[in-house]
Amino acid sequence: MTRHQTHRWPQPLPGNERRLWFGGDYNPDQWPEEVWDEDVRLMRRAGVNLVSVGIFSWANIEVSDGVFEFGWLDRIVRKLGDAGIAVDLASATASPPMWLTQAHPEVLWRDERGDVCWPGARQHWRATSPVFRRYALRLCRAMAEHYRGNPAVVAWHVNNEYGCHNRFDYSDDAAAAFRRWCERRYGSIETVNEAWGTSFWAQRMGDFSEILPPRFIGDGNFMNPGKLLDFKRFSSDALKEFFIAERDALAAITPDRPLTTNFMVSAGGMGLDYDDWGGEVDFVSNDHYVTPGEAHLDELAYSSSLVDGIARKRPWFLMEQSTGAVNWRPINYRKESGELIRDSLAHVAMGADAICYFQWRQSRAGAEKFHSAMVPHAGEHSEIFRDVCTLGEDLRILSREGVPGTTLARSRIALVVDYQSEWASEHSATPTQAVRHWTEPLDWFRALQDVGVTADVVPVAGDWASYEAVVLPSVFMLDEATSQRVRAYVEAGGTLLVTYYTGIVDERDHVWLGGYPGSIGDVVGVRSEEFAPMGDDYPGVPDRLALDNGAVAHDLADRITEVAPGVRVLARYVDASRTGMDAIPAITVNGFGRGSCVYVGCRLGRGGLAASLPMMLDAVAFAMDERACSPDGPRGAVMRVERRGEDGRRFVFSFNRTDERVRTMVEGRVLLASLAEVDEQGGEAILEPHGAIVTRVA
Fold first, then answer.
1. Which residues are catalytic (predicted)?
2. Are residues 485 and 571 in the same domain?
3. What's the predicted TM-score (pTM) here?
4. CA gap 64, 60 in Å, rounded
5. Above pLDDT 90, what percent of the chain?
6. How far apart are alpha carbons 378 and 561 in whole angstroms?
7. Same structural domain, 296 and 388
């Protein structure tokens, strides 16, 4: 995938050395000015060296059509700069002011039923509106002209979380833009008809003017899956095009300032094709909010690894996270003691050179008043603020030791993720609604952690072919070019692990014929004729399927009916003979060229995968790393991650993944110990729950 932008990182303020950036979103216009000096005092106390300013300030900057008031913003930018705190300045275009939408209601997006998204929240604009673009770019140019050369401004924060609320728009503007997008992509209406399979249900079109967005078609009906997939592609592209317009308007006036926008990468956050977007920013930024409960640390590490993959192992920026509870879930759980520090160190371990939060001071009013912040409602005399100060000192130590500029060390295993496979698997007419692409990579990441391996999460367009082993976890869509990449990788000696629901359709969402997985059947060496879904929605239907290695399949299995010569069956199903699944192969290994391929023909979940992985890895002679083992705990109790510099610097981060105390080996000189007791002479440490240590090895 082409990367259009070169990597440019925000540089420190004049007279300062490069450090890990630390801070958060700052909304001074929500507070009286007498609070600002208190904010700056507390920021200095906490070690904050950067804040993002003006993200939702359009109405306070352009107070009426063409009337700009920069005075308040100038004053706070000056205060921050004088205190040595850099500013990541927003374009302020995230939400239009009331005067604009009142004068131009045609900029408001519409849902699939045609209802207008009225002002009252945020992101109530359509990406395809020429009127909204005109006003937004005027604001961008005004901001850039006013702050060009300002030494406190080190980066541009373009818009905010594109597509968080306005991912899909079904307005007439969007319909016209979708037609143009289809014409550019396909060239002729007949090619669109072929791609969308419009011979089915008499949906054939005779002209591009007949193309409509996938608007409401009645409850219980099924939208054309080809159109739906392309509309998701179009929607990502339309928002990206708007970002590029904003980016270029700012860059034309301030070419010396790097630009970014904050992605929303998480295990299930696959609304936009962030790998495609990653080539359009000067540095990748992400907003990440943890999954509560037992998946907390693993999902964080998985998501951060994916951001690292999108950034192509260049330093990336954690733009938002929470110090404690969020405000937007049905139940907003607090973080447990130690998690605030542990979570940030985990992001650093996975490649982040900036640790920021939403937000600096917790709001008194508005929809996010119960969202936690660096300065909570309780003020500076609080556990959260004390932990923020401790974290600031920790990041200062890591900066002094040379962590900035180092990168996440490559794993031996790449775990492939594909945004468009997720989009295609989301259709409402599939073998089972219980299966999507995104859940399988997370299960594999966690299962690999359980056996002591921290995988790299790599986008499908990334450089996964250079890894010792590659996992294709339910990569539903494989086009011909990617299928050939897979084939060439294994032929050249690579080790491949493939699961059910991989290589089912091509880039048009057309099924590969000849049995599953159609696009790489020769590589895996097996052929399935049909899916065997499992569930509990009807009495008497199968809800699980036992394997003879002790694992249990659920949700979906392949009914493998052919096995190529030379394929070795590692596990089979054990079931009643009447079902036709008894003794059917479940896990196999095949030699292909100089390499080998393991095929997992069912959904095993984290537990079943972890139980089966030693057998699978042994079958392909993949030796596991013993350094992540706890002497008195289960394998995988400690997550071990390295960052390395080109000059030989090496930093080891170790995290307790359990709710119990665990021991781990200590390599090198201890820099930080959070909820940990270290015996450097004995070469061991005891990690409490949420405990972490960071050492410098070289």
1. 161, 320
2. yes
3. 0.97
4. 9
5. 96
6. 64
7. yes
> Of the residues 161, 339, 426, 642, which is catalytic?
161
Name every residue whose Cβ is closer than 8 Å to that of residue 8 and which is 6 or more positions away in sequence: 258, 282, 283
Question: Would you say residue 34 has pLDDT above 60?
Answer: yes
- The string over 98-124, giving b where at least 16 C-beta atoms fall within 10 Å of a residue's C-beta and e elsewhere, is eebbeebeebbbbeeeeeebebeebbb
Residue 214 has pLDDT above 80, yes or no: yes
Asked if 370 and 249 sit in the same domain, the reply is yes
Alpha helices (H) in 167-295, listed in sequence order: 172-186, 189-196, 225-253, 274-277
Under DSSP, the state recorded for 375 is B
Q: Is the pLDDT of residue 30 over 70?
A: yes
Candidates 62, 246, 320, 422; catalytic one: 320
Q: Are residues 267 and 137 in the same domain?
A: yes
Q: Which residue range forms the structural domain that includes residue 580?
A: 413-624
Number of domains in the chain: 3
Q: Do the bridges between strand 62-64 and strand 556-563 make them parallel or antiparallel, or are there none, so unpaired?
A: unpaired
Answer whether 451's CB lies under 8 Å from 613's CB: yes
State yes or no: is 161 an active-site residue: yes
pLDDT per residue as tens digits for the range 430-470: 999 999 999 999 999 999 999 999 999 999 999 999 999 99
Q: Tell me the average pLDDT of the chain.
A: 96
Q: Are residues 478 and 547 in the same domain?
A: yes
Q: Is 491 a catalytic residue?
A: no
Together in a domain, 634 and 618: no
3 state DSSP class of 554: coil
Binding residues for substrate: 122, 160, 328
CATH of residue 651's domain is 2.60.40.1180
